[in-house]
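Notes continue from the previous slide.

Worked example: a multi-chain complex. Inputs as given:
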Amino acid sequence: GAVVSQHPSRVICKSGTSVKIECRSLDFQATTMFWYRQFPKQSLMLMATSNEGSKATYEQGVEKDKFLINHASLTLSTLTVTSAHPEDSSFYICSAPTGERAEAFFGQGTRLTVV
Amino acid sequence: GQNIDQPTEMTATEGAIVQINCTYQTSGFNGLFWYQQHAGEAPTFLSYNVLDGLEEKGRFSSFLSRSKGYSYLLLKELQMKDSASYLCAVKEGTYKYIFGTGTRLKVLA
């Protein structure tokens, strides 16, 4: 199957700092990628759709200035959590669709802890 | 609105069969996926239905009824390693996935 690599897998940062998370499609090109957030014991909540070469599309209630998304190439999307606060602590996962069924392949996820 | 509902938790015994239900109401439908997710890990693909009926894949089967907005995942011969969360996801349009609430399955010895 296709491979999506997400980095870092874990990060701890101080309140007020920014954190960048990378999502790469390793063996296919992805014009569209998705960013999800997952709270403990809950399902994946779609945050935004990352579009190569254009602005991201954010879901209702997600602050675009807080969660900056850049999709500068066909294999890389980045999510930057700006001015992080403890309530931003969560598990963030990216996915990229590919194949006949446009099946979603997921990155390994990033556990963000803001202290 | 959009709703994809699943039971929150289920418990079953090793060797048994368990059925996890998913009901959905979405603005679009272009297929339904089931994913397995172990704690702290990314979801992994289990099955896909786009037409009504049953899809079988080893110990796992998935059923879809589009008219009822209903799917289920059937797990047979349960093993301890099947303890995980199971996510139902509806694909809207070409790429966008909406995930259900997820079901945490605990398999007991």
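Summary box: Chain A touches chain B through 26 residues (CB under 8 Å). The radius of gyration of chain A is 13 Å.
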